[in-house]
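Researcher: Quick test of sequence recovery. Tokens follow.
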């Protein structure tokens, strides 16, 4: 299934039915009173969050969604039927924005959460509605009221506790496959990951968290290079970022420090709040570095990057150092569960850009 995380659609609620002017006409009742019923209300358009969905692909080609109109009132005290409501199912984590004024209407963050995005118009009044003791033969009626019509943007932001960040081929997909139930595509060429992946990590009995893997960032992403900043929005709800660095890249005449600084620069250009999130450094592919050289290489990397936060040395492919990483993440999430997810971790010194 194609991953679609942003669509623009039109939603149109139903119009209310018109009221009716009618009088009772029966043999032996020559002066029958008014019996024109009210019109039915128009149908509503509702959005509901569905945990079984993870993409907005259903709305890619179905761009207009109209509810039914209310029926008009009829004689013999018959009120019109209400118009047919429609319910649009969207993934959990969807943001609804009105394109007319840019106002954010709702965020659907829990399964089953419902939001009425377009209200149906009320039905008009029939002459039965206007009958009083002094106005026994009213001939007034009102038309139905129009339903709301909006053009809205649906934007999906994944709900995850931890986000993976790094250059292409840093080993993010291998890492999420090693620690969670996710099975992303893994290959030895850049940009294997073309859309975000979610995985649930079991850290112990009754202990689990969700990890999000997004396509890699490269220098110039702010200008559209690579896949750009398109998928960084999916990290905005995370509570912890893991910056994955391929430490073995130094053997290929590639400077890991330069790569790490490029990622941080692009992160800051996208969103300062996201840049200030708690962030840990995960040095991957240590199995490709000889043990005598590894400790000195790690120390030199941390010194040049001016990093003062937690550092983890792992090999996602050989599954080395992963238990310690998973347990540390679980402990951090439990400790910060009662605090806001957008707090700044002052223990980390940001690398210069």
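Model:
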């Amino acid at each position: 299934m194609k991953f679609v995380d942003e669509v623009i659609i039109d939603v149109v609620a139903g119009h209310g039915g018109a009221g009716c002017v009618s009088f009772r006409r029966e043999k032996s009742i020559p002066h029958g009173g008014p019996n024109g019923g009210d019109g039915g209300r128009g149908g509503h358009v509702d959005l509901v969050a569905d945990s079984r969905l993870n993409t907005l692909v259903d709305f890619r080609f179905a761009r207009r969604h109209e509810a039914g109109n209310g029926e008009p009132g009829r004689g013999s005290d018959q009120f019109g039927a209400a118009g047919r409501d429609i319910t649009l199912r969207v993934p959990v984590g969807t943001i609804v924005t009105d394109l007319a004024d840019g106002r954010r209407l709702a965020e659907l963050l829990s399964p089953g959460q419902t939001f009425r995005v377009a209200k149906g118009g009320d039905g008009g009044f029939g002459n039965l509605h206007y009958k009083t003791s002094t106005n026994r033969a009213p001939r007034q009626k009102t038309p139905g009221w129009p339903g709301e019509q909006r053009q809205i943007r649906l934007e999906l932001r994944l709900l995850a506790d931890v986000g993976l960040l790094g250059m292409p081929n840093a080993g993010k997909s291998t890492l999420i496959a090693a620690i969670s139930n996710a099975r992303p595509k893994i290959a030895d060429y850049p940009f294997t990951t073309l859309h975000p992946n979610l995985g649930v990590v079991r850290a112990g009995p009754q202990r689990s968290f969700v990890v999000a893997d997004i396509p890699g960032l490269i220098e110039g992403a702010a200008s559209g290079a690579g896949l750009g900043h398109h998928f960084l929005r999916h990290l905005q709800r995370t509570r912890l970022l893991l910056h994955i660095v391929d430490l073995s890249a130094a053997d290929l005449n590639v400077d890991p420090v330069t790569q790490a600084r490029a990622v941080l620069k692009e992160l800051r250009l996208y969103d300062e709040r996201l840049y200030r999130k708690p962030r840990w450094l995960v040095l991957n592919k240590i199995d490709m570095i000889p043990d005598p050289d590894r400790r000195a290489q790690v120390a030199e990397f941390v010194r040049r990057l001016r990093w003062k936060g937690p550092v983890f040395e792992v090999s996602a492919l050989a599954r080395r150092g992963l238990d310690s990483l998973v347990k540390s993440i679980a402990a951090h999430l439990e400790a910060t569960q009662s605090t806001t997810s957008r707090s700044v971790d002052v223990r980390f010194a940001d690398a210069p850009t």
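Residues 105 and 195 are 26 Å apart (CA to CA).
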